[in-house]
Amino acid sequence: MTGPGTTPSAARQGLFVPNGHGRTLRTPAQQVTFKVTGEHSRAASSFEVVVPPGFDVGAHVHARSEELFYVLEGELDVLAFEPRVRTADDWRHWESASGRRTVRATQGTVIVVPPGCPHAFANRSGSSARMFFQSSPPPDHERYFEELLDILDHGGASDLAAIAALRARYDIEQLTPMRHDGPKHG
After folding, report:
1. In whole angstroms, what is the distance from residue 131 CA to residue 121 CA?
2. Are 151 and 167 in contact (CB under 8 A)?
3. Burial class for 76, CB neighbours closer than 10 Å (0-12, 13-18, 19+)
4. Model confidence over 19-54: pLDDT tens digits?
5. Residue 105 to residue 140: CA distance in whole angstroms
6. Would the CA dihedral through 175, 63, 38, 20 be positive or negative?
7. Tell me, what's the pLDDT at 1?
8. With helix as H, strand as E and coil as C, how does the chain read?
9. Does pLDDT of 115 surpass 90?
10. Per-residue confidence (pLDDT) for residue 178, from 0 to 100
């Protein structure tokens, strides 16, 4: 079915985004390339994210959003479960009631995070990691990334109050701090 101003052929055209294309936002803390936005999909926004050494998104939870992560290159420490105890400083040592712990996700690993599930990722290696990231429903994460990267791009110490206010507007309950401390080993 077509609506006003559309033709049958326009309604059936898909989106093709070649390798290396898409709108890219860059800061020292993160690089995000928008691949599919709410303009193109009612189901999800899709991004390619370069995660530099030392970046930790911090444990957080969404009440409404569902996310999918696919590691394309490198490795990331990942959390995707409700811990026995939510500590406010570092999620790396969290454990679920069934004994689940954080894992090292390598190339080809998929992580699916339903609404209400605490999750986090961090690059503790000495080189950048790259992942495909999908968030549903669109376009909240698109707007969130734009505003977050604007805050992070101002250099120096991150404005934690501005990040907290931003996250609250976009269905993100921050459980542990976001950090960008440079490479970590061990």
Report:
1. 11
2. no
3. buried
4. 989 999 887 777 999 999 999 999 999 999 999 999
5. 26
6. positive
7. 47
8. CCCCCCCHHHHCCCCCCCCCCCEEEECCCCEEEEEECCCCCCCCEEEEEEECCCEECCCEECCCCEEEEEEEECEEEEEECCECCCCCCCHHHCEECCCCECEEEECCCEEEECCCCCEEEECCCCCCEEEEEEEECCCHHHHHHHHHHHHHCCCCCCCHHHHHHHHHHCCCEECCCCEECCCCCC
9. yes
10. 84
Lookup: tokens for 54:
């030392």
> Which tokens in the block code for residue 113?
């995070």
Query: What does pLDDT average to over the chain?
Result: 88
Which token pair is 61?
């939870």
User: Which amino acid would we find at residue 148?
Assistant: L
